[in-house]
Amino acid sequence: MSNEDRAWLDTCESIKKVLESRRLAWNDSDSERYARLLTEDCDIVSATGRASHGRQAVIDLYIQQRRLPVYSEAIVTATQIKAIRLLTADVALVDAGYRMTRVHWDNQSAPVDLEGDILFVMQRDTTWKIASIRAQSPKIIPMVNEPQVD
Fold first, then answer.
1. 8 A C-beta contact, residue 119 and residue 29
2. Long-range contacts (CB closer than 8 Å, 24 or more residues apart) made by 10-17
3. Is 58 helix (H, G, I), strand (E, B) or coil?
4. DSSP letter at 46?
5. Do residues 80 and 58 touch, judged by C-beta distance below 8 A?
6. How far apart are CA 46 and CA 55, in angstroms?
7. Is 133 helix (H, G, I), strand (E, B) or coil?
8. pLDDT per residue as tens digits for the range 65-121
9. Over the Cα atoms of the chain, what is R_g?
């Protein structure tokens, strides 16, 4: 394996670890751990269409949204990386999908599962961090009915 190939694999693995750490911090409602994954000047447009700029503003929005009934029980079950494109050695676009369970979407009484697309801009200083997040509105995943046994 060439040094270039090894460097690419290391970059992909590092970015994957950051996104998995974000998923776990989100699920644990750990805003301090989440904040450590963000650049100081990061920004977000959430799946609900709300925008924030700057690490603390992004964390404040996360805390507000996590406390809403729609997300109070929600769990991000997966962040699936679809593609990583390096723009420079220290900036990458990451096209991903996400899945959530136990979301009370559109004031539905029963929780539903959701999935959607999300774009991350990653930036490396000494380590990779999230510089920007753009989440598309999710769609409800249809529940598969179990076959009835007579």
1. no
2. 11/84, 11/86, 11/92, 11/128, 12/81, 12/84, 14/127, 14/128, 15/81, 15/84, 15/92, 15/94, 15/122, 15/128, 16/81
3. helix
4. -
5. no
6. 14
7. strand
8. 999 888 889 999 999 999 999 999 999 999 999 999 999 877 667 888 999 999 999
9. 17
pLDDT recorded at residue 145: 54
The pair of structure tokens assigned to 8 is: 């690419």
What is 3-140's CATH number, 3.40.50.300, 3.20.20.100, 3.10.450.50, 3.40.50.10860?
3.10.450.50
pLDDT on residue 1: 81
List pLDDT tens digits, range 2-18: 888 898 999 999 999 99
Instruction: Give yes or no for a contact between 84 and 94, defined as CB atoms under 8 angstroms apart.
Output: yes
pLDDT in tens, 15-34: 999 999 999 999 999 999 99
Distance of CA 102 to the CA centre of its chain: 16
Sketch the domain layout of the chain as residue ranges. 3-140
